[in-house]
Amino acid sequence: MRCRVEIQRAHDLLTGILLDPRLRAAISPSDMQWAIARADVLCWVLLHDHNERFAQELAAIETLLQDTGFQLVDSGKLQRTPT
Predict the structure, then answer these.
(1) Which whole-number Å values give the CA distances from 38 to 5, 23, 27, 28, 82, in the listed order?
(2) pLDDT by residue (tens digit) across 33-81?
(3) CA–CA distance from 79 to each of 20, 25, 57, 58, 65 (Å)?
């Protein structure tokens, strides 16, 4: 895993681009949603309480998987839950 300083630096660079109108204009509309999603993930990793979007989406995905009989196990693999 990257160290906290590197993660914070990536967050600061990306959010700096997203918040600056001149730099933001250089991002194509098709890439904008990906850039925002990446910033959301970095905020989640850094435990920023001002941005809960990724945490909410992750919880919704986990609920959907559980409802369809899957769970994420510690190995990072999806596993069908016994019925």
Answers:
(1) 17, 16, 14, 15, 34
(2) 999 999 999 999 999 988 898 999 999 998 999 899 988 777 667 777 7
(3) 43, 42, 20, 17, 10
* pTM score of the predicted model: 0.77
Q: For residue 29, what are the CA distances in angstroms to 36, 37, 59? A: 11, 13, 27
Domain ranges of the chain: 1-51, 52-83
For residue 73, give both structure tokens: 């196990």
CA distance 69 to 20: 44
